[in-house]
From TrEMBL:
Transmembrane segments: none annotated. This is Subtilase family protein. It comes from Roseicitreum antarcticum. Coiled coil: none annotated. Gene3D superfamilies: Peptidase S8/S53 domain.
């Protein structure tokens, strides 16, 4: 069964692999500018040859990832250079970056094939009479159209992988609520070592160099693969610890129970973090290195018109003979005042870590909003059966969140996913309210 929770913090880095083809005719981006096209073609060929040479000499093997940056006029799907130049059987598209940026997996041989195709593109402007429009129009070959659609090509490099400094990373990760782990997105996940013999030489060297690079960092390193969903690229949780243990590499997906273990104390040594980030910055498999987010309670808006708070309230009794809609409230708990409407609780929090105010407020609006506020404010009929998903501890006690979720956000979402799955399976709940936000470290664009 597919996971009921799928959360993306940086959607711009999670675009689906693009399909080849598309409608529309071929466009000559250099129509009647033949000399300019020759200069452009030669520049693209030079860039591809340079990248090919770099990949051929690459210590991690000859497989790399290349950004194909399209000119603004070529952002339409029909103009993507995937029919003739970057064909899927030659250089597969593995994702996208910013608008107009394709990321492809490349090798020297495949890049030389692209160069050969570009060299075959005509340098003159070919015209054809359009019967419908009754005029001559440019009619380029696929090779010329696709070559013209490209603005430039670049090897995917360290600047694409990270946008924070070592010092910023250590400062952010030193807060226990973060879980103190980098989140490292990969272009592809190395298979288990038992399957390396099935890989070609380039992909095997890529996997071997990735594992050996981690092992070379020696003591106090923990690497875990986080749960991934369909069509999502692998994400690793990478943590430096104050430990004399050899690196623990768990690069294949594991269950929630297998991932949960006692964590060693976080290692804030700047030099160790610099070593780790230098390795990750330079490895072709790494797509992105991110600092983890933290969960914070959503701040409510202040009412523009002052309202008086009643000193007492009559809570309607649930009529069990009727069928009511059901809702899960993901928060810090729901007060006993609404216990008649609460059909189940997922209560992992100790009493001193409950924060009932907001969850009770939301539950009250859902179950008895009209009775408490009047139909002018809550016109919907009263009655909603609630599942109390109390997973977010109060911030009154310093370190409360980290005591429940020492691995940070991924572990919090593991717990929430288990609770949601349980409520859905046992009570058919399909609607959940979560008034929590994810705070990310600020980074320049």
């Amino acid at each position: 069964m597919a996971s009921p929770i799928q959360i993306v913090f940086n959607p711009e880095n999670y675009e689906e692999a693009r399909e080849a083809g598309g409608g529309g005719g071929r466009k000559d981006f250099f129509a009647h500018r033949d000399a300019e096209f020759v200069v452009h073609r030669n520049a693209i060929v030079s860039q591809l040859n340079t990248i090919s040479d770099v990949l051929a000499a690459q210590a991690q093997g000859d497989v790399g990832f290349v950004k194909v940056i399209l000119r603004r006029e070529a952002w339409a799907k029909s103009h993507r250079p995937v029919a003739s130049l970057f064909r899927g059987d030659r250089i597969p598209v593995v994702g996208g970056g910013d608008l107009g940026v394709m990321i492809v997996e490349a090798r020297p041989d495949s890049l030389r094939q692209v160069v050969a195709e570009i060299a075959r593109a005509e340098t003159n402007t070919v015209m054809r009479f359009n019967e419908r429009r009754q005029k001559d129009e440019p009619n380029p070959s696929a090779r010329k159209s696709e070559t013209g659609a490209i603005d430039r090509v670049e090897l995917y490099g360290p600047a694409d992988r990270r946008n924070f400094s070592v010092e910023e990373a250590v400062a952010w990760l030193s807060n226990p609520i973060t879980g103190s782990s980098y989140q490292v997105e990969l272009f592809d996940s190395p298979p288990p070592r038992s399957e390396w013999d099935r890989l070609d030489d380039g992909h095997r060297r890529l996997a071997e160099s990735f594992v050996s690079g981690f092992n070379a960092l020696e003591r106090g390193l923990s690497v875990d693969r986080l749960p991934s969903h369909k069509n999502r690229q692998a994400i690793l949780s990478v943590r430096l610890e104050q430990s004399s243990d050899q690196p623990a590499l768990r690069l294949n997906e594991s269950s929630v129970s297998e991932r949960r273990r006692e964590l060693a104390v976080f290692n804030p040594d700047v030099d160790r973090h610099a070593q780790l980030l230098t390795f990750l910055d330079g490895h072709p498999l790494v797509r992105r290195i991110e600092l983890p987010g933290i969960v914070v309670r959503a701040t409510g808006l202040t009412a523009s018109i002052p309202r008086s708070r009643p000193t007492s309230a009559n809570i309607p009794i649930r009529d069990s003979r009727l069928t009511h809609p059901r809702m899960g409230i993901i928060d810090g708990g729901i007060s006993a005042a609404l216990s008649d409407w609460v059909i189940d609780r997922w209560d992992i929090l100790a009493d001193e870590d409950l924060d009932l105010a907001h969850g009770t407020f939301i539950g009250g609006l859902a179950a008895v909003g009209a009775a408490l506020n009047g139909v002018e404010t809550c016109p919907e009929h009263d009655g909603a059966e609630l599942v109390d998903v109390a997973v977010f501890p109060s911030d009154r006690r310093t370190g409360a969140f980290a005591s429940y979720y020492p691995e940070g956000l991924p572990q919090f979402f593991d717990e929430m996913e288990s609770a949601v799955s349980d409520a859905r399976a046992r009570h058919g709940v399909r609607v959940f309210n979560m008034s929590l936000n994810i705070l990310q470290p600020a980074a320049p664009d």
